[in-house]
Amino acid sequence: MAWSDAMKLEDFRDFRADLQGQSGCYEIGHVRAGYFYAKYAGKASCLWDRISTYNSPSKCHNIHIAERHLASDIKRRNLYFHIFRTRDFAAMESRLLSREGIGLGNMYRFNQKYEAAHEHEDYSRAATLKLPDIMNKCSHCTRACPRQA
């Protein structure tokens, strides 16, 4: 189990086979010099349904991502995502958000709140959840990261 390669958010339809009927966690962010930099983390019982909502400013629930769709600057609209398939998506998301932090000054700066599930049973379970080794090595990118050297 590992994070997928980064996929361009606006091209999500090209990845239907990878997303349809799959549950898991996802991160949305930017790719710079071949490295994925996460700005938002989420979970979904159906990755296809969830990822598709981020491509419409009217359906997107996150203001930071919606603003980037409306931006005239192509660099601001250049968002990517990657996925991690798991049935234990609620606990995994909780662990990611707890470890890396949310809001300005933290890795998941586009996340503005912890979901209610994080405050109850999922959070306590997530505290003992062992994340896959690839996530413990570097949470900033999908390949070997110069920050880990």
Automatic annotation (TrEMBL):
<protein>
    <submittedName>
        <fullName>Uncharacterized protein</fullName>
    </submittedName>
</protein>
